[in-house]
């Protein structure tokens, strides 16, 4: 019976994937060896254009360890024979600014996602600056400084540093041991001649894949690509000998002590296979059984039952060019590190020597397969899948065949690969910790969307039903007024703890049963808390909508807050708060919000404080739930492949008996507007300094929001770094990243500017930011800059609403905040109406340096 159920789940997923891929990818190899992959999808007016180069950190030959592939990624876009860097930046911004690049061990990717009308411009831009760079000397020098700051950022981020340490254990001779960014000494030795030579050797047609996915017919996309690319001369791809990694015959361990951390970061694993190995499928299922979702073995046992870790997950990494690794990562209280390590190893051996439960096998297979459906909601997701399928396997349909092979995995195969690869003598373990353990030692479809239907149940719950049949899945989102805005300094963090406790047990379901109710079918359920709301959300395949609604209603209506589960969640909140201190940006933003808001609750963070969490009791959480978690304070949005009439009945049955509460509590008194400037400096043991400037901002629904949004885009980019601020700071080699954002609230929020810089450049960077602000306020933007800003805003808006869960969340929040669920639908026309004079007025009113909060967090402050 269970075997039949498993086959049924995978069959549903295969049908789901088939329905998503109504337009099959078209693959063409040009005479010069370049590969084109094009797929038509008219579900949104968006086109994703990508260029992949087989040029990752393992391919650098004589430059290994220098980070040259990543260096070139930074430099492409700095100029071509026909375009200056400024012209490239302006043209990218004029089509939306949704452009970026990344470097991996295996490849480098450059992409632009834009509206349908601009896709050929995106293709022209990408092909020009990727294939015909001039590498201006001033850009080479500038980006050297930028990358040095990026290296410092990576050293400040515990998980990033831990991966570097771990890979150096697994690979002793293979170039996968070198970090993608390279190392300072090797990087500093690179010259412009090295850059030019490596690009000429590597960026040849045989080494490139071009992918176009979106609202353009595939044959039209292929023709446009051929026109621009088939004249490139045929040149063989470089052949760089790579040493073979010898087998690991004894365990390897490295402990790095980093004082100043609050948590310990553990990574352990075993070398495995290349992607072409038939064990790929069983290893991927094994990783999901171990560490994917709240019902997985490691999460259930170590986090929820034993309370040993704050977080834990497992991942099977299988590159195409070399053998990969199965890795377990965990974050924990340093005092619990030894127990957590022992418990992880025990669980791994139990898989190898014990029985693989039929239910967990079914759940892992469904989760792994469903992930492909969810990934393909957006043009970017489909383009990424197609690109990597071609790069790694040469087969654009590999992911489709992959699902069928996942469905064939048996419990015996999972147990066999665990026995094969989980061998004690092959264990590699890396630990980053504030203090060493006693025994440790340093070892160095397409279709138009139907109208949204709104109804209000008798208990006051507002319901939004949004049929969107482009993907065979559904998103359920319940947003409830609350969050930090409902807290006091004494109970700060209570809403977040309460939200997580909703998932820890109901009258009829245990914590594990709640997690598995959807995870068994490839879906998920989660809860979160923010500044103004808390939420419970779920995603599922369309066939599982009744189950998703039932489970979401159950956790909202019938939570029991079991004592043991409350205690476990409370401990997790305390540990998560400790981990937050290890994040340079999160730590700086906490200082910033406290300085920005001296009276309003927005001055607190959702994670709470050590003092407030320490005081928190189960009874207080229950009272908070009873006061706040009520349908007349909530909006339910259900978006996806649904029939409104049928869904209405399901919603009424699931949520109709949820008892309503009293009127919403009174709103907090707004924060008084800034009337003068103040500055806060705080010392932190980091390799970078984070600077934040804050200005009094807007409420939700303020008609000035659109002009402020365009102002933000022109000033600092939108979604991606850009604009006059980023270009000036980056051009002066002062920062790796800089951005700005508008943060409205139910009471007036703020506008923030953030930059990360080297400690010895902090004062200069701050002075430059103030100089840029002053200049920006002095004159209205040009017509060209205004148009670029508008396109950036609209592009970011459209890209941010591709996933069903984002559409549901946006509609629910807009309705809850009194703006109307269709508020977002009018965004583009409101942005289009913004004038240059309105942008200047907003800059002058918002960006007043005489009424500003400045926060500087870093060494020596």
Features:
861 residues; 4 domains; 31 helices; Cytochrome Bc1 Complex, Chain A, domain 1; six-stranded mixed beta sheet; disordered N terminus; alpha+beta; 44% helix; 18% strand
Architecture per CATH nomenclature, i.e. the level-2 architecture of the largest domain: 2-Layer Sandwich
CATH superfamily of the largest domain: Metalloenzyme, LuxS/M16 peptidase-like
Q: Which shape, going by the Cα principal axes?
A: globular
Write down the domain tally.
4
What structural category arises from helix and sheet content?
A: alpha+beta
Oligomer: single chain
Biggest β-sheet description: 6 strands, mixed
- Unreliable runs: 1-22, 439-448
Lateral strand order in the biggest sheet:
1-2-6-3-5-4
CATH topology of the largest domain: Cytochrome Bc1 Complex, Chain A, domain 1
Say how many strands there are.
Answer: 22
Mean of all residue-level pLDDT scores: 92
CATH class group of the largest domain: Alpha Beta
DSSP summary: helix tally = 31
Please state roughly what percent of the residues sit in beta strands, choosing from under 5%, 5-15%, 15-25%, 25-35%, 35-45% or over 45%: 15-25%
Query: Over the alpha carbons, how many angstroms does the gyration radius reach?
Result: 27 Å
Q: Give the N-to-C terminal Cα separation.
A: 65 Å
Please bin the fraction of helical residues: 40-55%
Short recap of the structure:
The protein is an alpha+beta fold and 861 residues long. 44% of the residues lie in helices and 18% in strands. The protein folds into 4 domains: 31-229, Metalloenzyme, LuxS/M16 peptidase-like (Cytochrome Bc1 Complex, Chain A, domain 1, 2-Layer Sandwich); 252-375 and 399-433, Cytochrome Bc1 Complex, Chain A, domain 1 (2-Layer Sandwich); 453-655, Metalloenzyme, LuxS/M16 peptidase-like (Cytochrome Bc1 Complex, Chain A, domain 1); 678-858, Cytochrome Bc1 Complex, Chain A, domain 1 (2-Layer Sandwich).
């Amino acid at each position: 019976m269970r075997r039949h159920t498993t086959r049924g789940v995978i069959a549903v997923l295969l049908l789901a994937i088939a329905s998503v891929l109504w337009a099959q990818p078209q693959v063409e190899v040009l005479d010069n060896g370049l590969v084109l992959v094009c797929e038509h999808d008219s579900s949104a007016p968006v086109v994703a254009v990508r260029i992949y180069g087989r040029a990752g950190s393992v391919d650098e030959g004589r430059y290994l360890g220098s980070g040259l592939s990543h260096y070139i990624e930074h430099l492409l876009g700095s100029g071509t024979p026909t375009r200056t860097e400024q012209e490239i930046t302006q043209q990218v911004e004029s089509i939306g600014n949704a452009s970026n690049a990344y470097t991996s061990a295996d490849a480098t990717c450059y992409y632009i996602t834009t509206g349908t009308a601009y896709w050929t411009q995106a293709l022209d831009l990408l092909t020009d600056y990727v294939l015909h760079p001039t590498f201006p000397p001033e850009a080479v020098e500038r980006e050297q400084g930028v990358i040095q700051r990026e290296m410092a950022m990576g050293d400040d981020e515990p998980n990033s540093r831990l991966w570097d340490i771990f890979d150096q254990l697994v690979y002793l001779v293979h170039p996968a041991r070198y970090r993608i960014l390279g190392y300072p000494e090797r990087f500093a030795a690179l010259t412009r001649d090295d850059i030019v030579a490596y690009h000429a050797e590597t960026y040849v047609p045989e080494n490139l894949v071009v992918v176009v996915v979106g609202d353009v017919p595939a044959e039209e996309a292929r023709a446009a690509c051929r026109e621009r690319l088939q004249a490139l001369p045929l040149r063989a791809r470089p052949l760089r000998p790579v040493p073979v990694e010898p087998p690991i015959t004894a365990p390897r361990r490295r402990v790095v002590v980093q004082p100043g951390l609050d948590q310990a970061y553990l990574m352990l694993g075993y070398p495995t296979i290349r992607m072409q190995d038939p064990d790929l499928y069983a290893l991927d299922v094994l990783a999901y059984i171990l560490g994917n979702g709240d019902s997985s073995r490691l999460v259930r046992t170590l986090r929820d039952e034993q309370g040993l870790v704050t977080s834990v997950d497992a991942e099977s990494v299988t590159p195409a060019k070399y053998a990969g690794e199965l890795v377990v990562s965990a974050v924990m209280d340093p005092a619990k590190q030894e127990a957590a390590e022992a418990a992880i190893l025990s669980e791994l051996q139990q898989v190898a020597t014990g029985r693989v439960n039929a239910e967990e096998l079914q759940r892992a297979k469904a989760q792994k397969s469903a992930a492909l459906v969810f990934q393909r909601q957006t043009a970017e997701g489909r383009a990424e899948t197609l690109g990597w399928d071609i790069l790694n396997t040469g087969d654009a349909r590999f992911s489709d065949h992959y699902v069928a092979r996942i469905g064939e995995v048996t419990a015996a195969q999972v147990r066999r690969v665990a026995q094969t690869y989980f061998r004690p003598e092959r264990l590699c373990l890396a630990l980053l910790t504030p203090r060493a353990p006693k025994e440790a030692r340093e070892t160095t479809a397409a279709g138009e969307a139907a109208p949204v239907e709104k109804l209000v149940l008798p208990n006051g719950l507002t319901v939004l039903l949004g049929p969107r049949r482009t993907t065979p899945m559904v998103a359920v989102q319940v947003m409830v007024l609350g969050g930090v805005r409902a807290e006091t300094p004494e109970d700060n963090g209570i809403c977040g703890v309460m939200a997580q406790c909703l998932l820890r047990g109901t009258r009829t379901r245990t914590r594990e049963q709640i997690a598995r109710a959807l995870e068994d079918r490839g879906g998920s359920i989660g809860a979160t808390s923010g500044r103004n709301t808390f939420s419970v959300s779920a995603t599922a395949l369309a066939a599982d909508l009744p189950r998703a609604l039932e489970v979401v209603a159950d956790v909202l209506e019938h939570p029991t807050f079991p004592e043991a589960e409350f205690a476990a969640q409370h401990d997790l909140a305390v540990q998560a708060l400790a981990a937050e201190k290890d994040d340079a940006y999160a730590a700086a933003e906490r200082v910033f919000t406290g300085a920005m808001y001296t009276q309003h609750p927005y001055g607190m963070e959702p994670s709470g404080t050590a003092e407030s969490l320490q005081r928190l009791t189960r009874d207080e959480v229950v009272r908070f739930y009873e006061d706040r978690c009520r349908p007349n304070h909530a909006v339910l949005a259900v978006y996806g492949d649904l029939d409104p009439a049928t869904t209405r009945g399901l919603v009424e049955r699931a949520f109709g008996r949820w008892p309503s509460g009293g009127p919403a509590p009174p709103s907090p008194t707004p924060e008084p507007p800034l009337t003068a400037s103040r500055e806060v400096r705080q010392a932190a043991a980091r390799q970078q300094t984070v600077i934040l400037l804050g200005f009094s901002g807007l409420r939700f629904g303020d008609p000035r929001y659109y002009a402020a949004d365009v102002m933000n885009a022109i000033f600092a980019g939108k979604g991606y770094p850009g604009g006059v601020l980023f270009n000036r700071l980056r051009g002066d080699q002062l920062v790796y990243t800089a951005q700005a954002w508008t943060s409205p609230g139910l009471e007036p929020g703020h506008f923030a500017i953030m930059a990360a810089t080297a400690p010895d450049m902090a004062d200069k960077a701050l002075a430059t930011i103030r100089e840029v602000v002053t200049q920006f306020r002095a004159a209205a933007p040009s017509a060209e800059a205004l148009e670029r800003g508008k396109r950036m805003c609209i592009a970011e808006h459209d890209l941010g609403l591709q996933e069903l869960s984002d559409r549901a969340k946006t509609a629910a929040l807009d309705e809850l905040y009194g703006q109307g669920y269709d508020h977002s639908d009018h965004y583009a026309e409101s942005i289009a109406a913004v004038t240059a004079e309105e942008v200047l007025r907003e800059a002058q009113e918002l960006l007043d340096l005489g009424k500003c909060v400045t926060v500087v967090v870093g060494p020596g402050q």
